Amino acid sequence: MTENVRNSRRRTGPVRLSLGALSGALAGCAALAIAQVIAGAVRPQSGPVVAVGGAAIDRTPAAVKDWAIRNFGTDDKLVLQLGILAVLALFAVSLGIAGLRFRRPAAAGVLLFGVVGALAATGRPDSTGPADALPSVAGAVAGAVLLYVLTGRLARRTEPSPAAPSGGDWDRRGFVIAAGTAAVASAGAALLGRSLAGAGGRDAVASRHNAVLPAPVSPAPPVPRGAGPRVPGLSPFITPSSDFYRVDTALVVPRVDATTWALRIHGKGVTRPLTLSYDDLLRRDLVERDITLTCVSNEVGGPYVGNARWTGVRLADLLAECGVRPPSQGGPADQLVARSVDGMTIGSPVEDVMDGRDALLALGMNGVPLPFAHGFPVRMVVPGLYGFVSACKWIEDIELTTFGAYDPYWVKRGWARRAPVRTQSRIDTPKPFARPKAGTVMVAGVAWAQHRGIDKVEVRVDDGPWREARLAAEDTADTWRQWTFPWQATRGGHTLTVRATDRTGAVQTARRTRTIPDGAGGWHSVVVTVD
User: Fold this and answer.
1) CA angle centred on 104, ends 99 and 106, rounded to 5°
2) Rounded Cα gap, residues 461 and 311, in angstroms
3) If you write DSSP's letter for every residue of 44-65 in order, what string do you get?
4) Integer CA distances (angstroms), 454 to 16, 420, 480, 508, in order
5) What is the distance between the alpha carbons of residues 242 and 413, in angstroms, rounded to a whole number?
6) Is 105 left (phi over 0), alpha (psi -120 to 50) or beta?
7) Which of 4, 176, 243, 392 can pair with 346 through a Cys bridge, CB separation 3.0 to 4.6 Å?
8) Residue 193 backbone phi and psi in degrees, to 5
9) Cβ-proximal residues to 204 (8 Å cutoff; 6+ apart), any chain
10) Alpha carbon of 359 to those of 281, 380, 391: distances in Å?
11) pTM across the whole model
């Protein structure tokens, strides 16, 4: 082999490898773009990234999910989708490079992507049928064809020789035209897919815009003066809807059209099944209540707790209308299974829902119809229970059954069947590692024990004695309670610790426990340095 031929291979080898990788990337983008177009016409949840992401969430061990929420917070879904896209990109680039020598097997590899996406989409609990496979299949076919074409343009016509050092060379002009056309078409398809997805939710957006909540027949009493001390850094007593935590498994927030939505109540012990529309609920007697919700994934001192003013229909009244009796009155069902439009199932104790607490089918949050991210058109709110056993968003079905007969979504993954909210407290200010000045430092935070109420909050500085904090006025036993503690801070490093006592006399436990299976335990502490 001559020196010219060897130099030619050195020059063209890396270039062709780079263009092979580019071919794979373009094929992957085209596959996702076409899939997005078809998903926009079918339903957004059938797209391959969403479907595979949902399947990954369903199969992820509870401890890993808990880790993701703890480390990424409400961005956990974004991180998952970015991870899926990164894996797909590596897969596509690898296929593009392999396609330089093995065109057909590489194209077949793209089709494998379609099979995985189709199986994930049709295997989801909210799948509407075989049509959910169409986005992944159509996208994979488009990607496979494009990869086959592009790698074909990169194929050498003849081997290099002294007379033709670059061989017959590959079809530069044809590759540039095909790659450029594919890039432009993929971008256009992606925009079209987004437009179609948006159009599919326009009826839902219009139904929320047109929804008017009637004045409640039982309005919430005014928040007592002094319930929310004005301390910089302290959480507001009523959490704005935009700041309210959101923890669920929906990669795409369902946008449900309230004009076509319906709720079915049926099952064991139901003598008069009901099917209710959104307007049916609006015509009923609405109540308004301030209720604090807590996620079971909330670590000690964590942010997944919020207080809002909810408007809705008493769930116990609806169940009684259907002939349901709690177990304490001889009812045969001890579990209420709520089903969401996205396939989520949440089990609640019938006894708790019907024991007189303000368990609601909520239609409003902070004076307006529920935001889509928080369950529009209707969700469940049950004070005193963690969200994973009570707070079903986008609810469409309520079935009365027993704990022995059915395990809901989270129970199947190792979480508890019953989970009353633990007595907890949190220091909001000063923040960890803050550097306040010596003198009077206002320590403040919140404490909660929904449906029991907070009776006392105590603060400890370093290893000193527990000293009682000043409690703000109480709204109801179902809301959190704010507290303040004027601390005479001295220079140096200090550890501030808080604990609460609920109205039953139970003191918040010092024993640290994980969130799984029924909520975290322990005292919240912050370390500060006083200057």
Assistant:
1) 45
2) 41
3) GGGSHHHHHHHHHHHHS-HHHH
4) 69, 15, 8, 11
5) 30
6) alpha
7) 392
8) -60, -40
9) 255, 256, 257, 258, 372, 376
10) 15, 7, 10
11) 0.86
Helix (H, G, I), strand (E, B) or coil at 152: helix
One-letter amino acid for residue 291 of the chain: I
Q: Tell me the backbone φ, ψ of residue 100, rounded to 5 degrees.
A: -65, -30
- CB burial string 356-383: b at 16+ within 10 A, e below: ebbbbbbbbbbeebbbbbbbbbbbbbbb
**Residue 168: what pLDDT?**
53
Q: Can the peptide bond before residue 254 be classed as cis, meaning omega within 30 degrees of 0?
A: no
Cα–Cα distance measured from residue 25 to residue 23, given in angstroms and rounded to the nearest whole number = 5
Could you give the CA distance from residue 199 to residue 227 in angstroms, rounded to a whole number? Answer: 44
* Predicted local distance difference test score (pLDDT) of residue 12: 47
Contact 373, 308 (CB under 8 A): no
Supply φ then ψ for residue 159, to 5 degrees.
-75, 150
SS3 169: coil
In which residue are the tokens 């169940």 written? 319
Residues of the chain with pLDDT under 50: 1-12, 158, 161, 163-167
Query: pLDDT value at position 221?
Result: 94
Helix 134-153 and helix 76-98, axial crossing angle in degrees, nearest 10: 40
Report pLDDT for 127. Answer: 86
Could you give the CA distance from residue 300 to residue 424 in angstroms, rounded to a whole number?
A: 8
Tokens, residue 299: 């670590």
Q: How far apart are CA 471 and CA 95, in angstroms?
A: 63
- For residues 361 and 281, is the Cβ–Cβ distance under 8 A? yes
Distance CA 278, CA 273 (A): 17
Measured CA to CA, the distance from residue 202 to residue 206 in angstroms comes to: 6
Contact 28, 22 (CB under 8 A): no
pLDDT at 193: 84
DSSP-derived secondary structure for 381-437 = E-TTB-GGGT--SSEEEEEEE-TTT---TTGGGT--S--BPPPEEEEEESPTT--PP
Burial class (CB in 10 A: 0-12, 13-18, 19+), 464: exposed
For β-strands 262-267 and 395-401, DSSP reports them as parallel
**CA 244 to chain centroid:** 13
Residue 400 confidence (pLDDT): 98
Q: Are 20 and 96 in contact (CB under 8 A)?
A: yes
Q: Quick one: pLDDT at residue 292?
A: 98
Element (H, E) at 212: none
Q: Which residues contact 383 (CB under 8 A, 6 or more apart)?
A: 289, 291, 292, 357, 358, 359, 450, 451, 478
Yes or no: say if 27 and 89 are a contact pair by the CB < 8 Å rule.
Answer: no
**What secondary structure does DSSP assign to 286-334, as a single string?**
PEEEEEEEE-TTPPTT-S-EEEEEEEEEEHHHHHHHTT---GGGT-S--
Hey, what amino acid is at 438?
A
- In angstroms, the CA 301 to CA 426 distance is 5
